[in-house]
Amino acid sequence: MIAELGQQDLDPSRWGYKAARLSRAAGLGFLVPPGICLCSEILGAPHSEQSLSAWLHIYRPDLVALRSSSPREDLLDKSNTGSSVSIIGCPPIARTIIRRIHSEILSQAKDQDDSASDIAVIVQQQVGSGYSGVAFYSDGALVAEFSYNAPGAVTSGLEPHTHVHVTRSVASATGRPAPTRAITDALIRACRRLRESFGFDIDLEWVWDRGALFVLQVRPVTRRLGSDR
Amino acid sequence: MKANKSTITRLFQKLGLEALPAHVFTANDRASSARLADLFGTEVPLVVRTAASNETRNLPRLVGRTAADASGWISTLPHDLDVIVQPFDEVLFSVEVGIYDQGELFELIPGIWELDSRATPATVSIDRRAGTVKTTWPVEEQPVKWYCLPLGYHAAEAKIEDWQLRVTIDWIRHNRAALDTIAELYGQPCGLKVHYAQHYGLSPQNVRTGLPDRIGPADPKPHNHAIITELDQKIPKEESLTLDVGIAREDHARLALLIQRIRAQGVRTVWLRSGVLSHLAIMLREAGLETRSVQ
Fold this sequence. Notes:
Order of helices and strands of chain B: HEHEEHEEEEEEEHHEEEEHEHE
Shape of chain A: globular
Number of helices of chain B: 7
Oligomer: heterodimer
Shape of chain B: globular
Largest sheet of chain B: 6 strands, antiparallel
Radius of gyration of chain B: 19 Å
Number of helices of chain A: 4
């Protein structure tokens, strides 16, 4: 009921699709911030705090992000993204983390669905903000939107700093100065491999920090973008 | 105002645009070996370009010789040619800049950009009023041409790099007043050929005329028409075609013939992979053909 990302295949029916896909991506060699997954049923037990504390002690993150992972989210045809919870900027203190999981993640899940006992929570090292955003990859075409030093801005609906569109062999971008070509190259390479591995069009949340592309979330594209993109 | 390389070089110096130093010598003031050595040193390899009062294509030039050899070569030149001498420096990337009222458009490729280049450039459109920048670039590596003294011309695969685009945007913005002055003198739209020299940075080399009339939204893509990839390929009777050929600088006559054949078949629009600001594109427009970018 406790598992580190990337160390084993996680069954999505127990760990949720988010955790399962991140763990698989890490196992494939993608840069996934280190994380530990905790199933909700053990979160009340004393050993969960001890285990989390041990993980925090060896990984020494400055900050952690908490993300819910449910078998009812991130499905092939429906994201149910509104039910997903992400909390960033948490101090690396086990007791505080567990308290926030209970008060902000599990309680919300219970409000939405009384049978939400199969939810898991990923406690993950938070990478530097750098450039962060979302990319959609479908039929060899990539659309990406990202911002600098504004984690979560794109997913929360704020206007991105930069927009990139790649079709066949030509890319175009508008927006603020950024290492756009380097980021685009990395996104194309990552999305191609993820598409091959997972077998679905890719909706990728990512961070580009100091030249490295980190995978934060891998989901299927549930609805393709319109032709105006 | 007529574009002559020596007057243009002096204009660049006056406007503070010159980074790669240039010295202009007229027919009455030829550069002696001692003078070149004084200016550049005895062992520094030089680039010597020539300028005529009526600029034609493919004026003689000398690359990579030191002061003594350069001076000897200069002394053999016709008396109606001016001479522009610069230190040789490897060109990391080449830019063709278009100056328009509403902003600037530039095309960039790694290495040297000559008539035979088939590389697809990155294109950057800077809207002066909105302050926005739109960029397109080829995603894959492509063969581009380089020149270095040990090897001379050689081809190698390369990609356009982010810093190259950024440094050019910054250069344009920083020198906007000077670029506007050039555009006033030569008429808008007007262009600049610019090199990024390894040790000196961005430095303009020449002024271009014959640019497309406007920068604006991307042209609708061509479909189902002929793509010409060889100089002696048959030209169909169509209103438009795509041209994807490389022509060596010395093969000017073959290019002129190709353009003649294209016009004879009633073609009015030529789509190009290799940049609408390129030398090839300029020649096509000067021949009365409309040019559009395939990107």
